[in-house]
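Checklist before submission:
- one chain only
- standard amino acids only
- sequence pasted in full

Submission:
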Amino acid sequence: MRAYKAADTSGDGFVDYREFKYLVDLLHYFHELSQQFKVLDANHDNRISLAEFVKGHEMVGIHMADEDAKAEFAKIDTNHGGYILFSEFCTYMAKKKAPPK
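Returned file contents:
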């Protein structure tokens, strides 16, 4: 649903021919994000803990100081629930790299 709403750039509730390619690009983008999220979510509880967040960074060779990791985690955890939810992850990643239009 997230991809459909984003692709409906006219806001009319429909994806027309011009918007369809963007919808396909977004579907691919959200699929990629879903796969990345699943890798980070080591215990498969559909959320990312601080420990999983740190481990995910280490897996790609990024080592962060504890305070830096906590600060970055807090920026992503916008509902302050102590975990990163998929919707929060998508928002964060979209800010890091927007999909092509």
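Reviewer check: The chain has a mean pLDDT of 89.
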